[in-house]
C-alpha cells in the first residue's frame, strides 16, 4: 500500500502493524480506503484498486487481482495470463522429469526471493542451504516449465 508498511503476525490475529503501530482490526486506511479485517480464520486486505489478499497463517495466502493486471505479473502466484501450463516457472533453471522434489521446491522458492526493508530480517540470509540434489540442477538462460 502506498504510504503504508503493513505486517501481519500469526501470533496477533486480530491486529495489524501499520507503520510501526499496532492497530485493531478492522482497520481502514483513510488516505486510500484500504480495509483490513478478519473473516473467519482469515485476515483480508482489500485495496480500492481491486487487489485482495487473504491470509490464513500456516495454511494459505490467496491473492486476487482485477483483470486489468492479466499478463502483467509474475512470481510465486503464477503469471495470470490464463494458461496454467506456463505457471510455476523457475527462472534460469531447466527442470528434468527426474528432478528430485526437494530440489524443485528449493529452486522454485529461492528463485523468487526479493529484498526486504532494512527494518526486516533479510530472507536471503535466513535461507537454508540447498538440498544435495540441487547441486546437479542444470542451468540455462531461458526459463523452462514443469508440471
UniProtKB/TrEMBL annotation:
InterPro entries xref list: Mucin_vWF_Thrombospondin_sf, VWF_type-D
Transmembrane segments: none
GO cellular component terms attached to this protein's record: extracellular matrix; extracellular space
Domain (VWFD): residue spans on this chain: 1-121
Keywords: Disulfide bond, Glycoprotein
Record carries keyword Glycoprotein: yes
PANTHER family membership: EXTRACELLULAR MATRIX GLYCOPROTEIN RELATED (PTHR11339), IGGFC-BINDING PROTEIN (PTHR11339:SF244)
Protein name (record): VWFD domain-containing protein
Organism of provenance: Gulo gulo
Amino acid at each position: 500500500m502506498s504510504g503504508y508498511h503493513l505486517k501481519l503476525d500469526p501470533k496477533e490475529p486480530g491486529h495489524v502493524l501499520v507503520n510501526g503501530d499496532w492497530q485493531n482490526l478492522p482497520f481502514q486506511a483513510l488516505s486510500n480506503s484500504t480495509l483490513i479485517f478478519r473473516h473467519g480464520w482469515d485476515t483480508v486486505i482489500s485495496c480500492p484498486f481491486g487487489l485482495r489478499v487473504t491470509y490464513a497463517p500456516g495454511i494459505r495466502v490467496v491473492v486476487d487481482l482485477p483483470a486489468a493486471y492479466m499478463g502483467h505479473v509474475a512470481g510465486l502466484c503464477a503469471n495470470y495470463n490464463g494458461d496454467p501450463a506456463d505457471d510455476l516457472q523457475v527462472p534460469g533453471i531447466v527442470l528434468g522429469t527426474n528432478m528430485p522434489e526437494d530440489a524443485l521446491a528449493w529452486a522454485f522458492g529461492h528463485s523468487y526471493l526479493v529484498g526486504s526493508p532494512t527494518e526486516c530480517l533479510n530472507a536471503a540470509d535466513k535461507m537454508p542451504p540447498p538440498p544435495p540434489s540441487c547441486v546437479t540442477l542444470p542451468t540455462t538462460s531461458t526459463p523452462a516449465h514443469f508440471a
